[in-house]
Design goal:
two-stranded antiparallel sheet, about 40% strand, globular, eight-stranded antiparallel β-sheet, alpha+beta
Length: about 160
């Protein structure tokens, strides 16, 4: 069971990310930003499925992903109203691999754009122009919870 403080911190991070204006124009794995939930499921070839989540219709598809020997559960986050894919969250199924994940992301995307730590979490961010994606690694506690988020880089002039 996830301690209440970690769940609260995760909820705040998720809320902050979802409140950012995003105009999608990039891809993650087998998906394209802006896809509908059914399009994501079809493109996944069995790796994702539809869900009617308690998060008020924001998370409408879930799946699994393996990268570099690490298994993740995947949440596909969609915009409200006319649901379109706006971000992807990968949560490691092995709580002890956060340092390895951080090293792997650095190998792929280079030096992080920023890194900040508080008593609750360490947040590391990368920007990939090639993938047109913002990548964020959130480590809550000392390697006890590790998640990666991908979202498209907003187009210039698309919001604040």
């Amino acid at each position: 069971m996830v301690p209440r403080l970690e769940l609260f911190a995760f909820s705040i991070v998720l809320l902050l990310l979802l409140s950012q204006p995003v105009v999608a124009y990039a891809d993650w794995q087998y998906t394209t930003w802006g896809m509908t939930p059914d399009e994501v499921v079809a493109a996944s070839k069995g790796l994702a499925s539809r869900t009617e989540d308690a998060e008020k219709g924001i998370k409408l598809a879930v799946g699994s992903h393996t990268a570099n020997g690490i298994d993740y559960s995947v949440s596909f986050i969609f915009s409200k109203g006319d649901p379109r894919l706006s971000s992807v969250y990968l949560i490691s199924k092995d709580p002890g691999v956060c340092p390895t994940i951080s090293n792997q992301l650095t190998d792929v995307y280079g030096k992080p754009e920023s890194k900040s730590a508080s008593g609750l979490a360490t947040i590391t961010k990368w920007r990939s122009g090639q993938a047109n994606a913002l990548i964020q690694l959130v480590q809550i506690g000392s390697s006890s919870h590790c998640e990666i988020s991908y979202r498209p880089i907003p187009k210039p002039g698309s919001g604040l």
